[in-house]
């Protein structure tokens, strides 16, 4: 109880004082600034990781829903709390059909940590819809993966991208070999049925830091989770689970995937659509007018400090304004963690796929009132 009260007090203090602020009044001649909006109020019911662990089960109870409020791309697909459903806050009003019919069901929202307000905004919206048991795991995904006994879940899109680029990954099918694996499995996967894990664990890589991803038969299947826990107990430090498993792969694998190629000399980052951190700093410092910087955080955050040449188009307003983005100038989206900026990048691909000179900053960006900033890579 003391820990929960402490977390709540810290979260309320931090969020009300300095939620990834963003503000200057300077703007370019392209998209207009968003209108002012009321100051953000954090959600009133905060829970800690012990509470989340208590309610995360495989399969998840019908009376519990764990909801990731971060953008589906690029955040959710490459790492989320197992069993969490993706309902990005920017898409909340369009995805309310994913919420349970039972208004008394436990809803736990989370996002990118104490600096992220997406989960708070979604929780407030859920209460307005009549849900009576709504919580926010304010420490969110960063706190989840900071516990070495935990592992993240990934999605089919992420698995496909790793296979396509030949990533140094060991993909493990935890289902029975004859009944399941031999009848169909994900390309490159090896068979280590969970029931035979101890006998076949020598097939795992000798290097304990190598990426190992387990999957089985979907969200009701425990085998991959059991095998992942065993691998962690053996000392493997980069373990993930494709919780939706082989059924999701079959549903997705036939869909074409595209890698958007940059039509400029801008150096790309590691993630699709991202800009290299050193390249971004160089452009901001030496050639700020060569790119259009778009801050997609909310107006109240923007006002507290942003890059001097950045314009503000909150992610909730971006879709209808994508048509105003220039085709003759690189566009770089920024936010506080790479979540909303990454969502902006993928939104542009959906609405204006012909617009190639588009990037986003993937990382934790802290911006001061004078426009100076620090940028660091976030943990996977």
Automatic annotation (TrEMBL):
Q: So which residues are the signal peptide here? A: 1-23
Rhodanese domain residues are 60-149, 165-258, 287-368
Family matches, as Pfam families: Rhodanese
Q: Which InterPro entries match?
A: GlpE_sulfurtransferase, Rhodanese-like_dom, Rhodanese-like_dom_sf
Assigned keywords, A-Z: Signal
Q: Does the keyword Signal apply?
A: yes
Matching Gene3D superfamilies:
Rhodanese-like domain (3.40.250.10)
| SMART domains per UniProt | RHOD
Alphabetized SUPFAM superfamilies for the sequence: Rhodanese/Cell cycle control phosphatase (SSF52821)
Q: Which domain of life is it from?
A: Bacteria
Q: Does the keyword Signal apply?
A: yes
Q: What is this protein called?
A: Rhodanese domain-containing protein
Q: What is the lineage of its organism?
A: Bacteria, Pseudomonadati, Thermodesulfobacteriota, Desulfobacteria, Desulfobacterales
């Amino acid at each position: 109880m003391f820990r929960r009260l402490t977390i709540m007090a810290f979260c309320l203090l931090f969020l009300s004082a300095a939620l990834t602020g963003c503000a200057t009044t300077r703007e370019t001649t392209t998209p207009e600034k968003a209108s002012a909006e009321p100051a953000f109020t954090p959600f009133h019911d905060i829970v800690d990781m012990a509470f989340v662990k208590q309610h995360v089960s495989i399969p998840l109870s019908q009376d519990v829903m764990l909801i990731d409020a971060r953008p589906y791309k690029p955040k959710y697909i490459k790492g989320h709390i197992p069993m969490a459903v993706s309902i990005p806050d920017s898409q909340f009003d369009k995805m309310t059909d994913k919420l349970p019919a039972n208004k008394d069901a436990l809803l736990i929202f989370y996002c990118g940590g104490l600096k992220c307000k997406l989960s708070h905004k979604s929780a407030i919206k859920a209460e307005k819809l009549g849900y009576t048991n709504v919580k926010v795991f304010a420490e969110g995904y960063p706190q989840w993966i900071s516990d070495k006994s935990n592992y993240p879940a990934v999605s089919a899109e992420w698995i496909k991208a790793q296979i396509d680029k030949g990533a140094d990954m060991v993909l493990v099918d935890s289902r029975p070999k004859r009944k399941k694996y031999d009848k169909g499995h994900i390309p490159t996967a090896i068979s280590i049925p969970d029931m035979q894990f101890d006998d076949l664990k020598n097939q795992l890589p000798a290097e304990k830091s190598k990426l190992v991803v387990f999957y089985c038969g979907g969200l009701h299947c425990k085998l991959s989770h059991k095998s992942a826990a065993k691998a962690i107990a053996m000392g493997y430090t980069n373990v993930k689970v494709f919780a939706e498993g082989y059924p999701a792969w079959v549903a997705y694998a036939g869909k074409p995937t595209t890698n958007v190629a940059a039509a400029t000399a801008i150096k790309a980052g590691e993630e699709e659509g991202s800009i290299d951190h050193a390249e971004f700093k160089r452009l901001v410092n030496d050639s700020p007018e060569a790119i259009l910087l778009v801050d997609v955080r909310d107006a109240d955050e923007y006002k507290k400090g942003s890059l001097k040449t950045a314009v503000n188009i909150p992610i909730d307003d971006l879709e209808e304004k994508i048509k105003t983005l220039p085709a003759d100038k690189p566009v770089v989206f920024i936010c506080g963690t790479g979540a909303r900026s990454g969502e902006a990048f993928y939104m542009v691909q959906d609405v204006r796929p012909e617009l190639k000179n588009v990037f986003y900053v993937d990382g934790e960006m802290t911006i001061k009132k004078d426009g100076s900033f620090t940028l660091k890579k976030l943990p996977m």
